[in-house]
Amino acid sequence: MVWGGGVEHAAGAGDWCTKNGNRTKSWLVGEALRHYFARRIPVVSASDEELAAIRRGRAAIKKGQFVTLEQVLHDLAPQNRKAGRKRA
Questions:
Q1: Is 27 inside a domain boundary?
Q2: Is the pLDDT of residue 5 over 50?
């Protein structure tokens, strides 16, 4: 979906698309984003090793073996870090 004529023309094309077809503006925006990212971010299939790592990670989450982002940020906060040895 490439429109010439700038943003004003693209907005008009969106109106035309919704009036003359079975498409909503949300669909049109979604399609535009999908095409935009498809050209810039390649789709790569996961390797067998990566798929195995995903399975191990999901199993660990089911067992409750994980750390939340909140816990990580708390541990990284300056007031929660242990003081290091003074260096000369």
A1: yes
A2: no
